[in-house]
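note to self: dont lose this again. the chain is below, predicted strucutre after it. 351 aa total, dont forget to put it in the shared folder this time
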Amino acid sequence: MLIPSGGGGGDISSVISRDLFEQLLKHRNDAVCEGKGFYSYDAFVSAAKSFGAFGNTGDAVTRKERGCCFSLSQTSHETTGGWPTAPDGPYAWGYCFVQEQGNPVDYCVPDQEWPCVPGKNNYNYGPAGRAIGVDLLNNPNVVAADPIISFKTALWFWMTPQSPKPSCHDVITGSWTPSDADKSAGRVPGYGVITNIINGGIECDKGSNPEADDRVRFYKRYCDIMGIGNYNYGPAGRAIGVDLLNNPNAVAADPIISFKTTLWFWMTPQSPKPSCHDVITGRWTPSDADKSAGRVPGYGVITNIINGGIECDKGSNLEADDRVGFYKRYCDIMGIGYGNNLDCSNQRPFA
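---
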């Protein structure tokens, strides 16, 4: 194949299980989604087999959760059907549509090697089609008709550098080293440069904007579900003056840095989540949406902030109960009361 296999072994099903796929893309088959029934787990696994390095390169975090979390969150933004008051939040509605929503730009780019067929688009269709063995220039509509081809074209884009842009895959696996020009332009390793590769001309270097923010919130939701915690190494490192993106192992090597990152997380709100500090000091006032989701002041919402996607809204579970057990022991030692709302068993996670 065009893309060689990585060194991790196994196919994508060992990284993204069927159950996890359903949890990440929870509402894609709802009746209100035009793409209902299109994006199947089996199609995803079948397509990924053509790109052996996808989810199969680097250490355990990079090879598994992080590569898939990055890619699925970006494509979820492009196909989202979520709205602010959607069940389970707006970021549980990725892959609701088969085609990009909004006002896509004209993708008929003048190109001698890959010219547009009259009345059809050609953006990436020539090289992508050649790579996956399908004539997409003359049959671009097959991308929206065949789910395996749809996933293959998305994975081709993810895995393939298009100069001067690196591939998204090379960025997240650490294979890309930014040039001096990249650094001076602010293009450094991290989730942001993935957005830049995909849609930088529209979403980047414009301050905060809803489109780029939407991508980040999909990413954070998927990270929470998959139990990936170091998505905040960039802002945490900046706050404490340490380059944690390029030196994440410093957290486990330097006890002062380890405590600093923990305290940064405790003290810092990450929208839509309040900071843990604001919750326990009474500075957080739950919104109507918080209240309807069961998120009210107490120890339970702290667990929700930290790991709600895995431990909350699932009834009693060992992980959340363990947190409460530690809390009660420390309260007893310090001679203070427990307060109310200790668990998050009936709280929906933050979006």
